[in-house]
Amino acid sequence: MTGPILSLRGITKSYGQGNALDRLLGRDTRFVALDGVSLEIARGDVVGIVGESGSGKSTLASIAVGLTKPTSGEVLLDGEPLSALMRDHGGPWRRRIQMAFQDSSSALNPRKSVSRCLTETLALRGVPKAEREAEALAMLTLVGLGAELAPRLPHELSGGQRQRVGLARALAMKPDILIADEPVSSLDVSLQAQVINLLSRLTRELGLTLLFISHDLALVRTLCSRIIVMRKGAIVEQGPCLDVLDHPTHTYTQLLIAAVPKGIKGRRQHAAAAQIASPISTARESAG
Amino acid sequence: MSAPLLSIEGLRVGFRNASGGLVEAVRGIDFSVEPGEAVGVVGESGSGKSLSMLAVMRLLGSPARTTGGRVMFDGRDLLSIDEARMRAIRGRDIAMVFQDPQSSLNPALTIGRQITDVVRAHRRVSGTEARRIAAETLERVGIRDAGKRLDAYPHEFSGGMRQRALIAMAIACRPRLLIADEPTTALDVTVQAQIVDLIAELRRDLGIAVIFISHNLQLVAEIVDRVVVMYGGKVVEDGPVEAIEREPRHPYTGLLQACVPSLTGPVGPLVTIEGSPPRLGRMPQGCPFSPRCPRAESRCETQMPPLVVDFDQRFACWRPL
Amino acid sequence: MRDLASTLRLIDWTGWLGAGIVVIMVCAAIFAPLIAPYDPVALSIEDRLLPPDMVHWLGTDQAGRDVLSRIIFGARASLAVGIGAVVIGALIGVSAGLFAAYKGGLGDQIVMRIVDGVASIPLLVWAIAIVGILGVGPVRVGPLMLPNEIKIVLLVGVLFSPVFARVTYAVASRVVGADYVRARWLQGATHWDIVTGDILPNCLSPIIVQGTLLVAIGIVVEASVSFVGLGVQPPQASWGSMLSDARSAIYSGEWWLPVFPGLAISITVIGFNLLGDAVRELFDPRSEARTLVA
Predict the structure, then answer these.
(1) Binding-face residues of B in 105-144 toward A, CB within 8 A
(2) pLDDT of residue A279
(3) What residues form DSSP beta bridges with B228?
(4) Contact, C64 vs C47, CB < 8 A?
(5) Cβ of B301 under 8 Å from any chain A Cβ?
(6) In this structure, are strands B226-231 and B234-240 parallel, antiparallel, or unpaired?
(7) What is the distance between the alpha carbons of residues C262 and C78, in angstroms, rounded to a whole number?
(8) Fewer CB within 10 Å of terminal CB in chain C, N or C?
(9) Any idea where the domains of chain B sit in the sequence?
């Protein structure tokens, strides 16, 4: 119980090994999504990972739950290597780590009702058949949804409701760690606030360890105690959330902070921010 | 002030649904844009903000169609002129930039070709002249080495550069009005800031009026003069950006501002707007916001409040803040 | 789910026409002995080559058999081959497509290259060649004696399977990447449950559309094989063999002999095509826009 609940050691992920001709000519065509990232998450931590597209934050999440195999490096879940655990595909260890997905339209099976989605999850957790219905309703209540949504299909739900059902599905496994990949980026601001408050409540009430992946610094500031800033597959800055955001040391963190819309107050700062950012990035850079 | 550049009067947009009934998504909106003015249209998805702008451009696709109102531009009603005239206005006088730069560009044609096509559609110029204009415009939107970049294909551009190229296409004919529909939503935050700056700059230097559609009030406030807040297919509030930001009168505007966390100040639970936006066809009888409004009383549920004018601000609320 | 009434409203008249033709043809095939006015194989020398009249609505052939009755009984062979081949093709093709899409990597490559191989076989030529080689008599496969019709069904089924495999593969490879499939995998659901419970149901619509269109092709294949004498054997009726027998009549003026079986084939093929288009329209997400209330 004293060690980190999740640790990533020297995770590297590269795509495209290059074809024979490229190798022969000594051309390096690989795209490195993650470059030797290490981090440790303590039990009960609420950690925000921020960065822009191509920073590798989503790849990192995907590797942490085992959806993607790292090119090198190791993921340890409570000190046990994930690669070893994964040999037992449906094993009880699955309950320890779950993921909530970003895109609310593909996160739920369009042909399964809310209640079916939750009860089949509960079945995999080993909840007896007789208790599943009641437990599914309890999960809905937990995420602030009413029982009347149970028979509905995903397209009959609003974006915010779908996102909550996705959360309920992940939580139905009773995970110790929840990885949420941009869980609110496709939602309207009013619904964003609802989901963020919900996540905040769940971490407090359930003692959930949360890895919150986002590009929105202000949301991370509201929710997380620790922040990790990533850029181009590497961690550039990390530390207690408020310290980092109030006194960023890395220029990239400063740039991200400057880019957050600030209303009328943002008008003057704007010109300054634009100057830090080089307006042109080469096509190769943008491939990420 | 002289006549407004664009004036939307009682615009309505509806869908024909499966049972043949008409469902209105935009239910009579009025606002105008002065020459050179920047107006932000703010609202959540389903508020009708994008639909109403597509209606202005006469770009509504089936099954949506305009069911009422006028759109006055240059003394003419855009909704009643013939399609040939409208085509001439579209792109030359009014240009539009969409949310997704990826799908707005033809992947099979070079950037230069796509810009010159727009130029030659509206101006009688030679190929070399069109190319010169294209290069100049591309340079103008901050793409370095524009002459060479003309021969690049969209996939060779990053997301931010594609959006710049689209803006170049839009301003190539020096329109008087640029409608930008969530132009930064698909982009990273740092790129978003650059694009917002670019639009502000073009407006200042070229005197183009801008309608900036967004769900983010904070973002809009950085570049516009006036904000129009839409909810449930109605304009619920509009006014100068300073007034809206300092003293919103409609409870929805107030909550919209409050529920976005900031990077300063104490950390605590976020202000939320409970419930979700009304669905089309299930619009409340009275104020569309009443089911979610903490200040709602019985009158709000049954009677739609009129848009009342208070100095330079307008709002539609029985119990304003 | 949209309710049934509003779903049905999405079908236009051509769709209903197609469905009507298909239902009538299927009923004719099933209830042939009840509907047919005469015995389709009963010979009657004095009734030879009678033109259509009130007694024999569609006339009689060279052996004095009633053409209408033969067309009604002929529907059995045509539809059996069309539908049977589609079912077999779907079983093989959908499994292959799902496997390849879900498995990915080397398994994907191997399965889909085999599919490409089968797809490169010219359908009709092979059907004719194989039946020609094996002969039109029953074939013994282990303890089973397969009649000629079953042989054709199996053969056409195998030849249809690449079409199903490719359609399934195309849709399934998109569905496999969907977050709801990843979520099921993360929960530790079995591969079987994921494939049958999450992937297959979301691939079904194009498969069904493809199926209805292939039934039409199956009917044409049966007619072609029977036309060259390698399908349904005399005296049993099939639309293709009836056309074949009517070859000489084209010159001697008995127009009803080629025209009515030909019409039966055309109308049924059109019926399945119209039904297929209607089904595609139903499953098309864009058609949902018409019922859009969100």
Answers:
(1) 142-144
(2) 40
(3) B41, B238
(4) yes
(5) no
(6) antiparallel
(7) 12
(8) N
(9) 102-173
**Are residues A200 and A2 in contact, defined by beta-carbon separation less than 8 angstroms?**
no
- Does some domain include residue A181? yes
Query: Does the beta-carbon distance from A261 to B259 stay under 8 Å?
Result: no
Token couple for B82: 């013939």
Report the Cα B206 to chain-centroid distance in Å: 19
Which domain does A151 fall in, by range? 43-72+93-247
Are A197 and B272 inside 8 Å of each other by CB?
yes
The helix (run of H) or strand (run of E) holding residue C185 is helix C179-187
Model confidence pLDDT, tens digit, residues A47-66: 999 998 888 998 999 999 99
One-letter amino acid at B22 equals: L
DSSP-assigned beta bridge partners for residue B239? B227
Please name the residue ranges forming H helices in chain A: 20-24, 57-64, 82-85, 114-125, 129-142, 159-171, 189-206, 217-223, 241-246, 251-259, 266-276, 283-286
**pLDDT per residue over A95-114, tens digit each?**
899 999 986 678 999 889 99
Residue at token pair 């939580």: A171
Surface-to-core class of residue A14, CB atoms within 10 Å of its CB (0-12 exposed, 13-18 middle, 19+ buried): middle
Residue in this structure with the two tokens 């042109």, named with its chain if needed: A280
CA atoms within a 13 Å half-sphere pointing along the CA-CB vector of B107: 3
C110: how many CB neighbours lie within 10 A of its CB? 13
A174: nearest CA in chain C? C187
Listed in sequence order, the residues at least 6 apart from A100 whose beta carbon sits closer than 8 Å to its beta carbon are: A107, A163, A166, A167, A170, A178, A179, A180, A181, A183
pLDDT at A272 over 90: no
Q: Does C11 touch chain A (CB under 8 A)?
A: no
Q: What percent of chain A has pLDDT over 70?
A: 86
Q: What is the pLDDT of residues C232-280, one digit of tens each?
A: 777 778 888 888 888 877 788 888 888 999 899 899 989 998 988 888 7
- Asked if B159 lies within 8 A of A242 by C-beta distance, the reply is no
Q: CB distance C6–B281 less than 8 Å?
A: no
Q: Which residue of C has its CA nearest to A93?
A: C188
Interchain pair C290, B18: CB under 8 A: yes
Q: For residue B299, what are the contacts with CB-CB under 8 A and spacing of at least 6?
A: B286, B318
Query: Where does residue A126 rank: exposed (0-12), middle (13-18), buried (19+ CB within 10 A)?
Result: exposed
* Residue C7 confidence (pLDDT): 67
Buried/exposed B279-291: b ≥16 CB within 10 Å, e otherwise: ebeebbebbbbbb
Positive or negative CA dihedral for A95, A99, A104, A105? negative
Q: pLDDT tier at B130 (50, 70, 90 boundaries)?
A: very high
Task: Looking at the complex, report in whole angstroms how far the Cα of residue A60 sits from the nearest Cα belonging to chain B.
Answer: 18
Whether residues A281 and B193 touch (CB distance < 8 A) is answered with: no
C209 — phi, psi (to 5°)?
A: -60, -50
Count how many domains chain A has.
1
Residue B83 in contact with residue B62, Cβ under 8 Å?
Answer: no
Assign 3-class secondary structure to A66-85. Answer: CCCCCCEEEEEECCEEHHHH
CA B27/CA B234 separation, integer angstroms: 6
Tokens coding A168:
């309920």
CATH code (residue A218): 3.40.50.300
- Of A194, A257, A274, which has the smallest distance from its Cβ to B272's Cβ? A194
Q: Please state, in angstroms and rounded to a whole number, the distance separating the CA atoms of residues A216 and A57.
A: 13
**Interface pTM, i.e. ipTM:** 0.83
Q: Does the residue A204 lie in any domain?
A: yes
Each residue of B91-100: pLDDT tens digit? 899 999 988 8
The answer to whether B310 touches B259, Cβ cutoff 8 Å, is no
> Which domains are assigned to chain C?
8-36+57-286 (1.10.3720.10)
Query: Is A277 inside any structural domain?
Result: no
Paired residues of C136 in beta bridges: none
Q: How far apart are CA C136 and CA C143, in angstroms?
A: 19
